[in-house]
Amino acid sequence: VPAIETWALTKEYSNGRGCRDVSITVGKGEAFGFLGPNGAGKSTLVKMLVGMITPSSGRAALLGYKIGSLAAKSQIGYLPELYRYQEWMTGEEVVELHARLCRVERSVTAKRVPALLEEVGLGQRGRDRVKHYSKGMQQRLGLACALVNDPEIIFLDEPSSALDPIGRREVRNILEKLKERGKTIFLNSHLLEEVELLCDRMALLNNGVILRHGSVSEVLRKQ
Ligand code: ADP
Ligand code: ADP
Known about the structure:
Layout lengths: L3 E9 L5 E5 L2 E2 L4 E5 L6 H8 L7 E6 L2 E2 L3 H4 L2 E4 L11 H11 L4 H14 L15 H12 L6 E5 L7 H16 L3 E6 L2 H7 L2 E6 L2 E7 H6 L2
Parallel strand pairs: 4-9, 4-10, 7-8, 8-9
Antiparallel strand pairs: 1-2, 1-3, 1-5, 5-6, 10-11
The protein binds adenosine-5'-diphosphate (2 copies).
One adenosine-5'-diphosphate binds next to helix 1.
């Protein structure tokens, strides 16, 4: 089964905005870019896929499980666009808290938290409070949190929009490593370059509808 499959997935807010008739397939281990300007409907789609909002119509499955089901939710990690951290906590504590919220076993958590902090380049800073972290460090901490249940699919909503070029590169390096390890990546972005550098396949979204969908080279050649 594909990692992600949607059939005419639609969300219409009461003001008429949202996204409509989104039909896409993302294979296991693929990095998929969902490219579009602000307000195109990218967050809306991801929120439906992770089970945060209910579609108005259409269907979708993650690894064959209906979206919104516990089985689907347990396979995914999600880095929301504007994640607020408990600033008074240390990075280590934040990841531990996430592990507890995801019901990761204590014995697993003890090993996984330092490994994750290392993986996102915060190995030396895990005992510092989040209020002393830069934006890039906070975003990498968010990635560690999104990975805490060892998910098959990782959803990232504009992970680099608040970062400088160095921060962007750091995030991209981590995503590249995850891809090498066979994780499926779904990346929302308004930055063409970010999609081009990381993704195999993509969809171009505008005003809530998909304009093109295919391999990155196909979609961009036709533009
Ligand atoms: P639904 O149709 O899913 O019930 P609503 O239109 O009632 O959604 O809005 C849900 C929430 O999102 C409300 O709290 C609303 O204030 C907020 N909201 C409304 N418009 C926007 C917008 N353009 N962008 C983000 N949030 C919005
Ligand atoms: P993107 O992630 O591509 O920036 P969004 O999915 O956040 O786009 O928003 C798509 C459209 O839906 C925008 O016009 C936005 O203002 C509107 N919107 C988002 N959330 C809500 C909401 N809760 N209620 C009403 N409108 C919303």
